[in-house]
Design a protein that fits this description.
Length: 426
């Protein structure tokens, strides 16, 4: 459960001289504890690149620019101590932000975690590897160095003989082997690990969720964008619904990815629940004409996920006709519910604030706010789906995705977002 209340930020209540540079440091308000004690947790950020509107910006910047990214909102209890950037683009923000807000720029992951000391010196780690120039895998996924960066974090934990909570933005890795390795290493080292998309914490219109322990037959979801980045978001959206069903999560036994004409054929043949599909379309902000979809969407994509307990999920990527996410689900008694998953598509991208609050809650309690098994499963399912796409729609059996877990996380409708600001402005 997320806790929306946070302390207000008072900017520049202290000035630190470092050579000729003046750093402004967010002050602790009355009643707050010094960094590293009681509520305030010292965290390190390990990122691939830090530029305007990157995930590093919309996640990490909230620790010193407040949740509204303008110094006027609530500030998390986490305090940013250091940043390591794997790449430094020309429009890098980490260096100017470090000068302005007083956190450390580290040349290595180890330094970011030890703060120039011998052992671990932070209370948590944010690993945000979502942007930057990296090669593509043979399934078309960007090969972000999540395993490499996580290994460097784990090395510090081993040397220090203790671990602290780690959050990994979005998928655990671009392939099942690395994702399972990260998960298993976290269990070995007793690392409180959490990961995932911001979609599960989004606003829902209407505010609907799968009834806890209800029996489900099928879920249909609509997505857009790239299959790697946004396809993952859609799978997390679906899994956040599916994990609430009777018996909890049982794992995925097979997947299939269809493209182009075969998608429309699957719809016509009843491979996708037509009523759910139409309910999902109707929830979109600007529902397209279902009769004209074939003209509007030249290259549709259909993800089919077969769960071990018989639940079936279908995710349709309909670029050209939609630019938001929605989902519908059918209960065992044939009743249907549906909702729009609504993001704020402008600064301050407030949906990330509720992702950050979930991270902050884990840093305070030492316990993941939602289960990392959700993201282990979606990471593996996406990789298998893109293998199916590469192999022209072959049904891929996934006995290794026997990820079983119970989720006790409950979605809450977030407060209304602040007014939109232009995305090209700070």
């Amino acid at each position: 459960m997320l806790h929306f209340a946070r302390r207000k930020c008072s900017i520049a209540a202290a000035v630190v001289l470092a050579g000729t540079l003046v750093f402004c440091i967010p002050a602790l308000s009355d009643g707050d504890s010094p960094a590293g004690t009681n509520d305030t947790k010292r965290v390190a950020a390990v990122v691939t690149e830090y530029r305007h509107n990157s995930h590093a910006d919309v996640i990490v910047s909230r620790l010193f620019q407040t949740q509204t990214l303008d110094g006027k909102g609530d500030t998390p209890l986490m305090r940013l101590m250091s940043v390591f950037t794997d790449q430094i683009p020309e429009n890098d923000l980490s260096r100017p932000f470090a000068r302005q807000y007083g956190f450390r720029i580290s040349d290595t992951v180890a330094d970011a975690l030890t703060l120039d000391k011998q052992d671990l010196a932070v209370d948590g780690v944010l690993l945000v590897a979502e942007h930057g120039k990296y090669d593509l895998s043979d399934t078309g996924q960007t090969r972000y160095p999540k395993k490499r960066l996580f290994d460097e974090v784990a090395k510090v934990f081993r040397v220090s003989k203790r671990s602290v909570p780690v959050f990994i933005d979005k998928h655990l890795a671009d392939n099942w082997r690395d994702a399972k390795y990260i998960y298993d290493t976290a269990r070995e080292l007793d690392i409180p690990l959490m990961a995932g998309s911001s979609l599960p914490v989004l606003w829902r219109q209407p505010p609907a969720d799968v009834r806890h322990s209800a029996k489900l037959k099928q879920i249909v979801a609509i997505s857009y964008g790239s299959l790697d980045a946004y396809g993952f978001h859609a799978l997390e959206m679906v899994e956040a619904l599916a994990e609430r069903r009777f018996g909890g999560e049982t794992g995925v036994k097979a997947v299939q990815c269809l493209v182009d004409r075969s998608v429309w054929s699957a719809l016509e043949a009843g491979g996708v629940d037509r009523e759910l599909f139409e309910a999902t379309l109707a929830r979109l902000k600007k529902p397209p004409d279902a009769q004209k979809l074939a003209d509007l969407v030249p290259n549709p994509v259909l993800f089919v996920i077969e769960f071990a307990d018989g639940l079936r999920a279908s995710v349709l990527t309909l670029n050209g006709a939609v630019d938001n996410w929605s989902a519908a689900w059918r209960y065992d008694d044939d009743s249907v519910e549906s909702t729009l998953f609504a993001a704020q598509d402008a600064r301050p991208f407030m949906h990330f604030a509720y992702l950050v609050q979930g991270i902050d809650d884990m840093m305070q309690t030492g316990k993941p706010t939602w289960p990392v098994e959700r993201t282990l499963l979606t990471s593996g399912a996406l990789h298998a789906l893109l293998i199916s796409k590469k192999e022209h729609g072959r049904r891929v059996e996934t006995p290794y995705l026997d990820v079983k877990y119970q989720s006790h996380w409950n979605w809450q409708q977030p407060p209304p977002p602040p007014p939109d600001r232009p995305i090209d402005q700070q």
